[in-house]
């Protein structure tokens, strides 16, 4: 598990009203929260809006954060709540996604094409995961959260978090088996 040594002190400073300390926390976690929300929504602008909303709510709710608890899990829990709230409101409308920019020249175009193809196959398989499995899997695979932290973020038990990650991995193995040239049960 990744542990950021400065985090507890920055949280205490931010709780005391130090905006720069919170800005440092936001800078450290922004891309991670965005990546997770994008993985759940598949909409860049919606994920950006939800990420911004999560950090604004975290700033306002800093007084309720209990020192010694996992700030990262607390923050992802807020982001999850923003996602749920967003689905209830006007943001749940379909968003038109703009095409990604053309990648720069790469030294080995063949390798780059294979990598992009593999990433596309993996992203498609992840998109077919039920959301509760996908949310747990992304927190485990991308954010290196423990099962206890995943349970905290998703509002479930540690055993359920562990089971969801297991089922997601099993699903992805089955989905990617033909791509990888292996038969999966």
The secondary structure category is mainly alpha
Inertia-based shape: globular
Unreliable residue runs: 95-99
Radius of gyration over all CA atoms, rounded: 18 Å
What characterizes the major β-sheet? none
Structure, explained:
The chain is mostly helical and 185 residues long. The protein has 8 helices and no strands. The chain has helices at 7-15, 19-41, 44-60, 71-88, 109-128, 131-141, 147-154, 158-180. Helix 3 (44-60) crosses helix 4. The longest helix has 23 residues, at 19-41. The protein is globular and about 55 Å long.
Short description:
The protein has 185 residues and is mainly α. The chain is built from eight helices and no strands. Helix 1 (7-15) packs across helix 2 (19-41).
């Amino acid at each position: 598990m990744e542990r950021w040594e400065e985090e507890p002190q920055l949280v205490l400073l931010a709780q005391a009203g130090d905006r720069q300390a919170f800005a440092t926390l936001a800078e450290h976690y922004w891309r991670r929260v965005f990546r997770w929300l994008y993985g759940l929504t598949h909409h860049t602008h919606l994920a950006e809006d939800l990420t911004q909303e999560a950090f604004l709510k975290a700033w306002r709710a800093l007084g309720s954060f209990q020192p010694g608890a996992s700030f990262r899990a607390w923050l992802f829990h807020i982001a999850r709540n923003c996602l749920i709230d967003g689905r209830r409101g006007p943001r749940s409308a379909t968003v038109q996604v703009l095409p990604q920019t053309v990648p720069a020249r790469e030294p080995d175009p063949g390798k780059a094409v294979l990598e992009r193809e593999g990433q596309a196959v993996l992203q498609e398989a992840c998109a077919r995961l039920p959301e509760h499995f996908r949310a747990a899997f992304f927190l485990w695979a991308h954010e290196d959260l423990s099962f206890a932290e995943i349970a905290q973020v998703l509002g479930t038990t540690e055993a359920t978090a562990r089971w969801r990650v297991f089922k997601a991995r099993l699903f992805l193995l089955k989905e990617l088996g033909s791509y990888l040239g292996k038969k999966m049960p």
